[in-house]
Amino acid sequence: MTTAHDYSEGVDPERALKYAVQHHSGDRTEIVEGVISNVTPSWDHENAADEIRDQIRLRVKELGCVTGSGNLDLPGSSNWYIPDLAVVPKALAKGGGALLPDQVLLVVEITSESNAETDRVVKRKRYAEYGAPLYLLVDRVETTVTVFAGPGRLGYTKVDGPHPFGTPVRLPEPFGIELDTSGL
Question: Domains of the chain (ranges plus CATH)?
Fold first, then answer.
């Protein structure tokens, strides 16, 4: 008599899901609260990321870091993020794998109509919970910029904003620079 095999034995669903997303061919794919979605930024979205990247470039180099939009794993959850922009120590950027939010210096998310609430609520909560020291939210729907700092299990303890586009916004240390938000 043949019995059905239980393939779930020994399989970690979180690990299997993240493995599938990492080895998905072609598109940039992230998982937000267990929902898989392709990351396909528009040109105005990319312009906002470039505006920020250009303004922080010199300070990023001074800090021995690089900018990019690589994978961030949130272990113990069904989340695998691809931020619009992150600042990462150069030594960690050479490993080839995903990083943890507490390994980056800054995470930037830029909203669009389809993901605004996710960036405002879900990712803000998760980045704080997983220790990302600074979270810059560029809300193109509300045309505002907000800086979150002081991460903790229940969220960020320091909030600067929202500031309307065009208002200079200070990125705290280790950056210590002011962003011109008029081009966002």
Answer: 41-69+82-179 (3.90.1570.10)
pTM: 0.85
Strand (E) or helix (H) holding 160: strand 158-164
- pLDDT by residue (tens digit) across 123-168? 999 999 999 999 999 999 999 999 999 999 889 999 999 999 999 9
Cα gap 97→139, rounded to integer Å: 29
Residue 58 has phi, psi (to 5 degrees) of -60, -45
Contacts of 139 (CB under 8 A, 6+ apart): 111, 116, 119, 120, 145, 146, 162
Confidence of residue 98 (pLDDT cuts 50, 70, 90): confident
Six-digit token string for 174 = 């280790």
